[in-house]
Amino acid sequence: MRRKFTALLALATTACSGWRVESGPVPDATGHASSRSASIRIHLKRGGFVDLMGAKLVGDSVVGYSRDGRPDFARRAFATSDVHSISTYGFSAQKATLAVLLIGGASVALVYGCVSSLSG
Questions:
Q1: Domain range for residue 59?
Q2: S-S: 33 plus which of 21, 38, 68, 109, CB 3.0-4.6 Å?
Q3: How many domains, in total, are found in the chain?
């Protein structure tokens, strides 16, 4: 029972954040990634996506740094006309609420299971 509870807790606590597609034009979406550590995900019109750190709008291009499997960062630039959408990674209130409810329910079930095994 403890292993199930631990697994549920681990899954629920990681569910509080995720990728969210930004609405609006590309300049507004890149504004969320103003620091070097902030990350955005660019979905390209030709398919696929690229994760960029520290992205900003320079002229008509979205410019940032990407690893692409390398140990170091490489500067990457994409024309705004090639960008289908941009997603930002961050906290999700809906997922956090669901996680709290799941953790609470699992805790009640665990306590109930322990109490019923002691009394019966």
A1: 2-119
A2: 38
A3: 1
